[in-house]
Fold this protein.
Amino acid sequence: MNLRGRLFPLRSHHLPGERWITITLRSLHLLGVAGTGAGFLVSGSEPHAWRPYLILTVGTGLGMTLLYIWADGRWLLQICRQSVLVKLVLLGLIPVWPTAGPGLFAAVILLSGLTSHAPARVRHYSVLRRHPPCRRPDNERPGKE
């Protein structure tokens, strides 16, 4: 199988226990985000207060990103997913530029809010395909019977 076939499979790849892996990564990610924010709020740009949480945030964010890309590379094509890559870069700049850490962290939080609460046609817009995903009728949506 070539690279294109691996990145864009006809059916998404799945790991045994994938749901629990994702839940664990997300939970640890939330802990990291909260700890990083608290570290900046309590002691400003003192690395000892936020560095362990930042490592947890970036590590779990990278883990989730790699898992999603492995499952189906189309994950990379949507605006909301590309923002994840931008957030990882911004978080990666914090250790290099600690005095800008609180501002970079605030930018990550704002970007997260904007992309997660934007309308679906914006979040799932594909830059390469130049359109949002096809909208399914209400009776075909998960949870709708």
Remarks:
- The chain has one domain: 3-140.
- Residues 136-145 have pLDDT under 50 and may be disordered.
